[in-house]
Design goal:
This protein has 12 helices and 16 strands. It has a 9-stranded mixed beta sheet with strand order 7-6-15-9-14-13-12-11-10. Strands 1-2-3-4-5-16-8 form a 7-stranded mixed beta sheet, sandwiched between helices. About 2% of the residues have low confidence. This is Lipid II:glycine glycyltransferase. Belongs to the FemABX family. One of its GO terms (molecular function) is aminoacyltransferase activity.
């Protein structure tokens, strides 16, 4: 297969993604407008007949005082990762990015390597000798993903360090997904554990109402999000980030980003943003108040979002990042504990990979990032 690579228009890029069942929300052209502190570029791969067969959103971050850039392809590029001639896809990309002034390239192949169903995860949690997901036998292993990793290593790509909890990458290596394809909503609800089903009923009985919000409701979201940030000790993004995200993504597709708010007696208690690309739906950000937790607004909200995803024809409802820890004493354990109750599965991707085009500058970046 003879491939050529060139820059493409946003319209070509979007049309290509729309021809696929799905792609990451980090690879849609409008994501460049969300990440407006980065310079961006849309790349396309063409076969010998001139047909567009792959695409990528590249984000460029300039080094201070030097005209050299980190080139980042979050959860991309969108290419045929199982192609036997993977080098023919990636070498032209590296040459192009080097010509653009990149000193290093970071990418996140959207390639799944392992899956663990909820039964396997629960068994792991109950086993005192098991501390991490990787200590549990995977329910599904994708041999072709190991081949992709081997090919990348042989080409000189370096895998980003794990960071000890699956958070070594910029985008999460481990996520939690609820499969929806070939299942009825009844099947999905039956897959929830007893506690989740009880909490959904409790919220219903208490009169929790889940509504879809608009741009004008983003300050309500921000209020709950900042409460959550204080409680969970993380630095929140500003309201302007979510306003920009809403405007950029929904200008590209009116259904790309949604806001859900769970209310009790008219008071907002929980909120979440949801992103959709093709048949893949992501629960992106979530927030909740510190009081009235007994009426279970978060469970009610997730169940509404899941039902709406199903109505949109989604094949996957993605609860996004989890840690790989199964240790109940680890502060990150709650991430998987809450999500496993949905009866879904933990999914491991091959992670993010770096290609140093200038080894000295790449090493300097590594040292800088490790000190942050």
């Amino acid at each position: 297969m003879s491939l050529s690579l060139s820059t493409i228009s946003r319209e070509q890029h979007l049309a290509y993604l729309q021809s696929l069942p799905s792609a990451s929300h980090c690879q849609v052209p409008a994501w460049a407008d969300v990440k407006n502190e980065w310079r961006s570029e849309n790349l396309g791969w063409f076969d010998k007949s001139g047909e567009l067969v792959g695409a990528a959103l590249v984000l460029y971050r300039q080094l201070p005082k030097v005209k050299r850039y980190l080139a980042y392809l979050p959860e991309g590029p969108v290419i045929n990762w199982y192609a036997p001639n993977l080098e023919e896809w990636l070498q032209p990309m590296l040459a192009h990015l080097k010509h653009q002034g990149a000193f290093t390239v970071k990418m996140g192949p959207p390639v799944v390597i392992r899956r663990w169903n909820s039964a396997a995860i629960k068994a792991g949690i109950q086993d005192p000798d098991v501390k991490r997901l990787r200590d549990v036998e995977a329910s599904v292993i994708e041999p072709r993903a190991f081949e992709v990793s081997d090919k990348l290593r042989r080409m000189g790509w370096q895998q980003a360090e794990d960071g000890g909890a699956g958070f070594g990458d910029v985008q999460p290596r481990y996520v939690f997904q609820v499969p929806l394809a070939n299942r009825s909503l009844d099947d999905v609800l039956k897959g929830f554990n007893q506690l989740w089903r009880r909490n959904i009923k409790k919220a219903e009985k208490a009169g929790v109402e889940v509504v879809q919000g608009g741009y004008e409701d983003l300050p309500t979201w921000q209020y709950l999000y900042e409460i959550t940030a204080e409680r969970d000790k993380f630095r929140p993004r500003p309201l302007s980030y979510f306003q920009r995200q809403w405007t950029a993504l929904n200008s590209e597709d009116p259904n790309r980003m949604r806001l859900y708010i769970a209310k009790h007696e008219g008071e907002p208690l929980a909120a979440a943003t949801m992103l959709t690309v093709g048949q893949h739906v992501w629960y992106s950000y979530g927030a909740s108040a510190n009081h009235k937790r007994e009426v279970r607004p978060s469970n009610a909200m997730q169940w509404r979002m899941l039902r709406d995803s199903y109505a949109l024809g989604a094949s996957i409802y993605d609860l996004r990042g989890i840690s790989d820890t199964l240790d109940e004493n680890d502060h990150l354990f709650g991430l998987i504990q809450f999500k496993v109750g949905t009866g879904g599965e933990a999914v491991e991707y091959v992670g993010e990979w770096d290609f140093p085009l200038n080894k000295m500058l790449h090493k300097a970046l590594d040292i800088y990032m490790s000190r942050r």
